[in-house]
Amino acid sequence: MWTTASTLSFLVICLGVHEAQSEIPKRLTCDPPTCLFRDLHFKTTEELNGLMIEFDSDYYNTLEIVDSTIPIISRAFVTADVQVLNITKCNLYDILPNTFRKSDELKQLYLDGNRLQKLYHGVFIGANKLEEIKITNNQLKTIDLEAFLGLEKLKELDFSGNQISTLPSDIFVNMKTLTSVTFNDNLLQQLDGGMFADLNQLEDLSFENNFLRTIAANTFEGLNNLNRLILKNNRLESIDARAFAPLTNLTVLDLSGNNIKTITKDLFYPLTNLKELQLEDNYINDLEENVFERNTALERLDLSDNLIPELKPAVLSNLTQLKYFFAGKNLLRTIDVNLFRYNTIMEIIWLDGNLLEKLLPGTFDALGLLWALNLEKNQLTTLDGGLFINLSELKELNLNENRIQELKAGVFKGASNLEKLYIDSNVITVIEEHFLDDTPRLEIITINDNFVTNVPAGLFSNQTKLLEIILANNYIKDLAPGTFDNLQESVTRLNISENLLDMIDGAVFNMSNLDTLVLNDNLIDDMLATALESLPSLTELHIGENLLKQIPEAINKVTNLTYLMINDNYITKVNKGQLSQMKKLGYLSLYDNLIESIENGSFQGLDDLVWLNLGRNEITKLPAGLFANLTNLQKLFMGETNFSASNDAYFQSLKALETLDLDGNILSIIGADFLSGLTSLTQLRLEDTKGVFNGSHFKSLKSLEFLTLDNSNTTTISEDFFAGTPNLKSIYLTNSPLIYISSKAFSGLKNLTELYLGSYSGELKDIVANNTQLTVLELKEMNFTTLSDHFFSATRKLESLTITNNPNLSQLKPTWFKHLHHLTNLDLTNNNISHINPAIFESTPLLAELFLMGNPFKTLEKGMFQNVPLLKSLDLEDTTLSELPVGIFDGLYKLEKLYLSTNNLSHLANGTFRQLHSLSEIYLSNNSIENLDPFLFADTPRLKIIDLSYNKLSSLDDRLFAHQLALEELNLSNNLFVTFNLPQMSFAQTLKTLFIDSNMLTALKITPQLEELKADNNHITTIEVVNSSYYKLTTLSVQNNNFESISPAYPFYNLQELSVAQNTIPGIHLPTIVSRLPRLKSLNVALSAVATVGSASDVKQTRLKVLDLSNNKLTAEELEKVKNLPRLEAFAIGGNQFDEFAADVVLNNLPKLKTLGLYGSELTCGFTKYIEEIAKELHFTVETFSGTEQWQTKCREAEAEQENGTEN
């Protein structure tokens, strides 16, 4: 019978006994309503001897032990009465023979998150009624052939998240009752033929996230009743045409995330009951017409993210039950008008991310039940009338990121039930007034990121259900009264941010139900008092990044407002009463204004305010009682405000405050009571304050959980530093000049999970000896040569350990890592370690990230990484390596990122990377490589990023990247290439980014698919490109070449960043540049001998934010043409041929200007002072030589000369 002793009291006693190394608990009592135990800690198997559990079988059938230390399964846990045993996260590392000999009633066994490494022959003997075994997220490497001996009723097996690389071919013999087998997230490379032959009742089989490469003909023999087969995310390249022959009852097949290139025409023939087929994220480049001929029951087919150039109608013609079809991210240029002719019950079609330029009327005529159509990220230029004529059930249509120029009336005729319409990021300039007349049930429309200048007054005249309108990032200067009149009672959210609005007309916003209005990043400098009067339901207003110099009266009249974002304006002062009527305001941002003062009482009446951001202003002093009325404030942000803590009473009234951010303020003098009274504070940020902190500052912060003191001037962490903050979970104390840390500084912090320390010049004692919950520890810039053997003994939950930038650390002790079984991240960057004993990693089998950069290894010991098979990222940069032994990376099947830059490598042998089947990024820059073996990367088909910069390569063998299925980024900078012809490369279709600067190029040819190109410091005069109807290039840099014009960039209409600096370009024509490159945000033509900017005054509607014309031959007259750039933020014009210019003409037309660069100009002293006065008035930064000794000397000479002239 169970006793009535309190479990809580009992556990407290047990833990106390354990810590005192006294009597080990021998009797555990189940306390109703569950038999659940936590925090039991038995160091050795001997301590479990004689253990008993009071377990009433009439009341319980389940025993659970979690978050404990249990080395083995005690027989006390597996008595005859236990039906369900769950031992989770208990560091269980072994199951002894005969453990289950008396487990007559055990049916379910769950051993998740432990350290088991092997299951022995007959390990479960005695548990004859076991139906389910789940041993997931352990460290299992081996399962003996007869591990499941005697389990004649077993139905479910799950061994996910282990390190199993092979399975005995007869492991499932006589296990006829199994219905579900799961081996996800292991290291399996093959499945033996016939291994499932006895499993004729199996319904569910899953091997997701393994390393299977082939499937043989008889692999699935015997699985006649299998319903679901998951082979997702393996490395499958070939599947025998007969492999699926036994699977006649299969309904779900997932082959996604493999390396499949081709599919044999007979592969799916036997699967006549198949309903769901997942083939996405492969490399399929062709589909035969009859490939799905017999899969007539198919309801879902996913072909997305492949390389399919064409879909013939016959591919889908037999799939009359198909409802969901996905073919996005392929290379489709056209869709045959008959493709969907027989798929009459189709509901969802995804064709996003292809190269479709046109869709013919009739393409969707048979799809009367279609409700979602995604055509995003194609090259569509028009939508022909009649395309949607039969789509009466269509509810969602996505046309984002195409090249549609006009929105014409009649386009959506037939789509009368359309509810959601997305047309973002096209090149729309014109919207016809009756464009939406055929979609009366529309609820959401987004026309964001286009070039619309005018919204027709009658556009929404037929809309009565519209809820959300987004017209952001266009060129709208004003909206006609009546535009939204028909939407008075429907629209709740309107976004017209990033336009050119300079005023808000109350007659336009006549919408009684509007609750959210977004006006960010316009040119609004004031509002009429009546501007928002017609919005009685408004609760959320965003008006950041405008030109407001004060808080408009109109805002204060919106009495239902709960959310006000008025950040990034030019407000200099907050006056009492400006916010007084907004009694319901809960969130207020005044971030990044120019506020110097806030009157006392400014926040009076804001009783509901819970979130306030005053960061990045110029507040040096606050009235003592400013926050007195904010009794419900929970989060206060005051970073970078020039605030100084001159008064201890600032925050004491904020009893509900949970977060306080004072980052970036200089708090050199801080009173001891500065933070007193903040008993609810859980997060405190004091980064970059230069303050000297001690325990007295935090003495009352009993609820504090997060504290950052990074970059302070704190030197001492005494024993009582954190005495007032017992609930701290995260501490950041980096980049501070620590010289003393008490060994007991953190001992009282029982909940501490994250600790970041350094630099530290003192002796490092056992500072974390009592922090058993620690999961992250960083020791940065310390000077210890070693640590005690038991330094990490208590931190057994540690997942991330960082010991960096310590020149005195040359050796690692295996004893440090003995108990770090949960470690997944180890960073040892920039120490002085020359050798690592592989035995260190025997205790860290879960390691996923290992950073060894900046240590003088010179050589790597073979087998060094054999104990870390789960490694995903390995950094060996700057480790003086001169060679990599073949096989050094063997077994690292899961490695995704490998860093080998800045070494002395000159030769990489074939086979060096032979087992890195998951490798997606490799960095080999700054070595001495002249040639690469043509088959070096043959076993790394998933490589997406290769960095070979700063080597001595002059050519690439055609075979080098032939096995890379989807190479996206290639860096060849600082090599010896003379020509580069990308279209001839094997990876031409998939490459998105090419860096080839600082070579000796005289010719460069690219593909339309390329999105980013950097070819600085070469000898090219133009960029050749394959002729195409589309180009994806968004970033182009060709600095220091032989260009004579910007015109070679004109075909790339999607360019957002263009740099042609240091060429010889006599003149540019800004109107043409803006017209041909309408999305351009940054243009750099510095140091290019430019003498004219063309008729720049004709420039209209541009997105240009950065313009660099410095160090050219521009005169003041030419410069004065540059205006009407309403979004320009940075303008560099120094070093041209003027000493002054009509500053008011230019600068008054640049309302968003933040930085004016005049370095290099020989400006007169008077003009320099004048320009600085304008900069102060218009609130931008001007970069000149003002204040330098050179400038002062020049001005003194000029003044003296002027005085002499006056005297004469």
TrEMBL record:
The keyword Ribonucleoprotein does not apply. InterPro entries: Leu-rich_rpt, Leu-rich_rpt_typical-subtyp, LRR_dom_sf, LRR_TM_domain-containing. SUPFAM superfamilies: L domain-like. One of its GO terms (cellular component) is plasma membrane. Gene3D superfamilies: Ribonuclease Inhibitor. It comes from the Eukaryota. Residues 1-22 form the signal peptide. Keywords: Glycoprotein, Leucine-rich repeat, Repeat, Signal. The keyword Repeat applies. It holds the Pfam family LRR_1. This is AGAP007059-PA-like protein.
